[in-house]
Design brief:
Serine Threonine Protein Phosphatase 5, Tetratricopeptide repeat, 4 domains, 21 helices, about 450 residues, mainly alpha
Length: about 450
């Protein structure tokens, strides 16, 4: 028998019993240790691979986040503005800031600092984008470019002014300058062409049954260009703006409404145009700008009921957005400015609801109590008393709550509010409530 075979057999030879040989046990223990070392090494390798993959994934995610933040970085300072959730800045410039920029641009132009004036106008135009009427800035920029000897850029600026603001007070001057620089470009705008003898009749027909047909748009456009003093011109431009708004082109609609307000400020169409500017900003979710335009409308048309309707719609929009404090401010402004407004009662009542949603229960209760005191004939008075009592309960003022509930139950015994008031009073009857506690 060979040595190898003999050795292999000796592993299994018992040592006086059934137990394996010592050599077998030592070899088996060695093999088990070696296998355990291999398993541990594989486990460490898998763990290392997992950590490397996780680190790579995190690094890639961080790199993507940095790239996105860099690419999405605003091109203008964050203190300047644009639409909420938009792509440029945080807010749009206010009217006061625009007026200051305009004064600065005019001052620079008068001082013959044309390059500075051009830069000032370009900054304002870039910040506003397509959501504002900027005809004056375009005109200053084009004039400064012309004075600076940059005739081609001046022609482009004038053409853009005529294209974007065809009914501007600077349109004729812009067309005259463009005719001197680039006559073929000026002729393309058609302002210098003869309007035709039937233009007035066509425009009136277009207004009577406007449906957005090409001939109607052309008739109203030509009427406003050639006859800005015609009584139908403001209504025609307002109609064109409303048409753009229905089509979803809100920036173009804003420009047209702005031209109505600035070119025909005393016309009946001006207040409608201002109201629709507020609506456009609301649709664009530029609520701060909408609020500013609405406040300007209230200042300019303090006795017009359309201004009251616009303020109420804006307040309702703030309310639906959950901005109850700002909604209450608009409702309060409306009640103060238009006490005889048809919906003043509803608006006054909603002020109390706004404070309640804000969890300012004492102010809410005082508002409802004021409503009940100032409007004794209102159909909402019983509800105001009950809501006021409920708000006092939430404010932990039991005495005032009981007083309002008793008034509601005694003066309006057959109403739902009186039933609710009596149920609360029944709970309070005979019970001891420590001061400042609610039911």
């Amino acid at each position: 028998m060979s040595r190898k075979k003999r050795d292999s057999q000796s592993w299994f030879e018992p040592e006086g019993g059934e137990r394996p040989s010592a050599r077998f046990r030592v070899d088996l223990y060695g093999r088990l240790q070696e296998e355990m070392r291999r398993l541990a090494a594989r486990r460490r390798a898998r763990t290392a691979r997992s950590f490397r993959m996780l680190a790579g994934t995190l690094a890639a995610a961080l790199l993507v986040t940095v790239l996105v933040s860099v690419l999405a970085k605003p091109l203008v300072p964050a203190s300047h503005a644009t639409r909420r959730g938009g792509t440029v800045g945080d807010r749009m410039p206010t009217r006061r800031e625009v007026a200051a920029s305009l004064e600065k641009a005019l001052s620079l132009y008068r001082q013959s600092r044309y390059e500075k004036a051009i830069q000032c106008c370009e900054n304002v135009i870039r910040l506003h984008g397509e959501t504002e009427i900027l005809d004056h800035f375009f005109h200053i920029r084009a004039s400064a470019l012309l004075k600076a000897g940059r005739r081609q850029e001046a022609a482009e600026a004038l053409a853009r002014l005529l294209s974007a603001y065809p009914y501007s007070r600077f349109a004729w001057d812009a067309l005259h300058l463009l005719g001197q620089i680039d006559p073929p470009a000026a002729s393309r705008f058609g302002i210098a062409e003869e309007p035709g003898t039937d233009l007035d009749e066509n425009a009136q027909e277009a207004l009577a049954g406007f449906s957005g047909a090409a001939w109607q748009v052309d008739a109203l456009d030509r009427l406003a260009r050639h006859y800005p003093e015609h009584p139908a011109s403001p209504e025609g431009v307002l109609t064109l703006g409303s048409f753009r708004m229905r089509k979803g082109d809100l920036p173009a609609a804003l420009r047209l409404f702005g031209q109505v307000s600035s070119h025909w400020p005393e016309s009946e169409a001006a207040v409608k145009a201002q109201a629709r500017r507020v609506e456009c900003y609301r649709r664009m979710d530029l609520l701060d700008r909408a609020s500013e335009e609405c406040y300007a409308m209230l200042q300019k048309y303090p006795d017009d009921e359309l201004a009251a309707d616009t303020a109420m719609e804006l307040g309702n929009h703030w309310f639906s957005k959950g901005e109850f404090q700002r909604a209450a401010c608009w409702y309060d402004e409306l009640v103060e400015r238009f006490p005889s407004y048809a919906l003043a009662e509803n608006v006054h009542f909603r002020i109390g609801q706004c404070y309640e949603r804000e969890k300012n229960f004492r102010q809410s209760a005082q508002t409802f109590e004021e409503f009940a005191r100032e409007r004794p004939e209102s159909v909402l008075r019983s509800k105001a008393l009950a809501c006021g009592g409920d708000a006092y309960l939430k404010a932990r003022d039991l005495a005032q709550a009981v007083r309002l509930f008793q008034t509601c139950a005694s003066q309006y015994p057959n109403t739902i509010e009186a039933h609710y008031a009596r149920s609360i009073l029944t709970q309070a009857d005979g019970r001891s409530f420590p001061p400042g506690s609610a039911l």
